[in-house]
Structures are given as C-alpha cells and as structure tokens.
Design goal:
By secondary structure, this protein is an alpha+beta fold. It has one domain. It has 3 helices and 7 strands, in the order βαβαβββββα.
C-alpha cells in the first residue's frame, strides 16, 4: 500500500491508522478513484469513451470577457457557453492497471481571465498508483 496526499484523502474519505490515506493499485481501487471525478461520459469508470460519440456537458449562461476558443476578446458582458468533456476510466493490460484521462480541458464553471481559454483534446494513460518509494527523485525526472 502507498500513502497519498490530502487531495486523495478528500476524494476517498478513508484514513489509515497513522492519519494518512492508503490505497493499492488494483483495478477496483483505480475505478474508485476514477468515479470521484465529475465525468461527463457514461462509460466511466469502467471503460473509455469514444471521442466522437462523447457529447460532454454544456456549461452556459456565463457572462465574461472572453469565451473559450474565441479569437478575440469581447465586451465584459458577453454571454458564453461551451461543452466540457471529461472521462476518467481504468483498465488492465497484462498485470498492470492504468488510469486513462480524456478531456478537452475546459472548466465546469464560469471563469474570469483576460486570456482566451482554448480547448484541446487530451487522451493519455499512466500506470495507476505506481510505487516509487525506492526511487531517487533526482533521477526520476529528466532536465
């Protein structure tokens, strides 16, 4: 078992005897974490969504200076709406468990920024809850 941060504690709500949170790296535990996200796909956490069939959720009625993917800033009172996509799922490949994130990166709320927020298609997988307790942090990340 591995100790996780306060953010994970807030997601899971379970605490071990030392006051930290522990979770293993099983498919069931991965799905428990994935189900805590505000997923907009119906497949999560059991499987990934097909990006083309993945409708997302509409965030709208926001009055703000810039709208997502807008080429120019508008007036501070323009009305905006956009489609947010997020699908966090888990799967096994061989003996490894992976967590997959599919998103367009748009927020689930109105925001205030003079900069334009752009949607991007992100679709990536990483091994779930890999034990790095014996790793040298200086050699884990390349410069």
């Amino acid at each position: 078992m591995r100790s996780l941060s306060l953010a994970a504690l807030l997601l899971l709500g379970t605490v071990n005897a030392s006051g930290g949170i522990t979770i293993g790296s099983t498919l069931t535990e991965c799905k428990a974490i994935a189900s805590k996200f505000k997923n907009t796909c119906t497949e999560a956490p059991d499987s990934a969504a097909s990006w083309t069939d993945f409708t997302g959720e509409t965030v709208g009625s926001c009055t703000q200076e810039t709208c997502p993917d807008s080429a120019t800033a508008g007036s501070p009172t323009q009305s905006c709406s956009w489609t947010r996509k997020l699908c966090v799922s888990c799967y096994e490949s061989g003996s490894d468990v992976y967590i997959r994130v599919q998103t367009n990166g748009l927020p689930d709320h109105c925001y205030t920024t003079p900069s334009t927020v752009y949607s991007w298609t992100f679709d990536f997988s990483v091994k779930f809850n890999v034990d790095i307790s014996g790793e040298d942090a200086s050699s884990t990340f390349a410069d």
